[in-house]
Every structure is written in structure tokens, then in C-alpha cells.
Amino acid sequence: MSPSMTINRSFSRYSALLSVKKYSDKHEWITVEGGIGTVGISDFAQDKLGDIVYAQLPEVDTELDQEGEGWLFKIKLSKEAEIDELMDEEAYAAFLEGEQE
After folding, report:
1. Would you tell me the Gene Ontology cellular component terms (predicted)?
2. Contact status, residue 33 vs residue 20, Cβ threshold 8 Å
3. pLDDT score recorded for residue 93
4. What's the whole-number mean pLDDT along residues 22-27?
5. Residue 8: which pLDDT band, with cuts at 50, 70 and 90?
6. Torsion over CA of 21, 50, 99 and 71, rounded to 10 degrees?
7. Is pLDDT at 9 greater than 70 in this prediction?
């Protein structure tokens, strides 16, 4: 007899909803999950800027008010509500159109 095996699967849309990208007017993006923000630069900025040769990262424990698999740093958010002030993907696309005119 072979031992029986039980496989449990569960799916959660909760974390997917929390990790929506928000954009700044300086072409940085952030996703938030569990109070931790993951910060990177947009595809637009990567195409325009080319290689990143310098990045000024925040000091450890510095409080800050503010694609794909690539990102620059992770931060613990002290004021998560400030993320609402940033642009969603649709607003960022409109911002890019205005900037290219």
C-alpha cells in the first residue's frame, strides 16, 4: 500500500490587490505589500536613461514620505496612506503622453 497524500491549495487575491503599482512624476514606481514598499524605476525611465550608474539609496532607518522583476530597494512605510497621492498606471500613461508633447 502506498501512503496517502493530501495536497491543499489556496489562492488569495488580497496580496495582488495590494501590490498595484503607483507612480511618481519622477518615473519611480512603488508596490506595497504588508507595509513594505518595493521601489523601482519605470520602463519609460529605463528606456530614456539607459544603464543605471548611480543610485542614492536612503540610509537605514531613514523615514521617507513617499517593473517587472527589477527593483532598487525596499522600505518599511510609516505613512502608507501617502501612496494614494501617487498616480495609478492609467494616470501615469496620461502623464507620459503629456510629457512627450
Report:
1. glycine cleavage complex; mitochondrion
2. no
3. 92
4. 91
5. very low
6. 10
7. no
Domains of the chain: 16-100 (2.40.50.100)
Give dist(CA 87, CA 83) in Å, integer. 9
For 40-61, the pLDDT digits (tens) are: 888 888 888 777 677 776 677 7
As a whole number of angstroms, the distance between CA 42 and CA 28 comes to 6
User: CB neighbours of 25 closer than 8 A, spacing ≥ 6?
Assistant: 87, 95
Backbone angles phi, psi at 31, to 5 degrees: -120, 150
Spatial distance between the Cα atoms of 97 and 101, rounded to a whole number of angstroms = 7
